[in-house]
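URGENT: need a sanity check before tomorrow's submission.

F., can you look over the Osteomodulin record below? I want to be sure the sequence and structure line up before it goes out.
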Amino acid sequence: MGILSHLLILHLLWAALVFCQYEDYDFEDEYGGEPDHQLPYYFNPNTQVEVPRFPFPVECAKECFCPPAFPLSMYCDHRKLKTIPNIPSHVQQLYLQNNNIEAVPAGPFTNVTFIREINLSYNNIKFHMIDHGVFAKLSHLVQLHLQHNELEEFPFPLPSSLERLLLGFNKISRLPANALEGLPNMTTLDLCNNLLDDSVFKEKPFSNMKNLMQLNLCNNKLQTMPPDLPPSLRHLSLENNSISHIPENYFHRLPHIIALRMSHNNLQDIPHNTFNLPNLLELNLGHNKLKQVFYIPRSLQHLYIEDNEIENINVTVMCPTLDPLNIKQLTYIRVDQNKLTSPISSYAFFCFPLIRTIYYGEQNVTVSRPSQLRTPVFRRFLTPEEFQEAEDNHETLNQETEEDHEAEDSYFHPYY
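Structure tokens as predicted:
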């Protein structure tokens, strides 16, 4: 016991000496005085591919720029390049947009092992100038940008790792049966502004894409609703086609839809419960030929039905019953360029207690002379500051030209 007591005393004396040594030390003198309030960084092993350590400065193609702050990225955009430079093996993000590239050979990608994103948008690439399998060999590729090129066909084969594929503004007119096979991780597919018609659906190209959440088919030549879409879809864009009918119960297979955009089509009649979807937040049916309104689901927040042929908005059809425990979430309706002669019934404010804005605008009561309702914009629940901001925005909107609206509606951002 005596030995243990002595050892304990020595230990306490040593601890006191260490404490006294740092008791008056001001750590702020060494680290600048201000605490670091940055949010903690949570590393996700699925978002970064482990690459071998490399000395600085990193290797970079002479035509490009590799910033020291982003050693895994190589910027070759806006440089009038006609060919793809050799790509160092460590590169994970490659930016080649806005050049004059016409071909994608396999050579520059020979030693590329870890690349995750390639941006080849705004070039002159054609399908037959892409070496077969050049993308399929990139086993870590997650995102591929090929919009605004000259592609006549879908650029397959592709790697199974791919999650986002952007092909808008090309000349693609068909989808081979196997073009979308082996892509289990695909979440976003943008095919807007191509030459696709209903024949592309014969092989049911989208049916096996179990994780697809966003499908953009706007500005094509579709006349019918695309069949056999995966139930995983959240966002569906079908603007600027020639679709005239939505089959009854069409959306029963798509219960997770959040945003549906079908403006600039030929829709005339909507079955009553077509949009009875539990998660729908945004519905855009502007610039069609609708004569009647339809049932509004509880979840819907924004409704666009401008530039149709609606003469009367029957609120009872939109809201058959009142349920105080499950109030409807609608906050915004746009109904300008219809044939309304009177504002929406005040009963709407019982059905939709959260509604803030109804935009009436001009109404096409007669072909030769559009009329304007007494209240072009109805707003409520606005503070004076919010009201003034809304008025300023409305004045700006009135100054926009018709061409501005057409340009805005013709194509939307592929990420919603």
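My own read: The first helix runs from residue 2 to 23. Residues 282 and 302 are 5 Å apart (CA to CA). If you see anything odd, call me.
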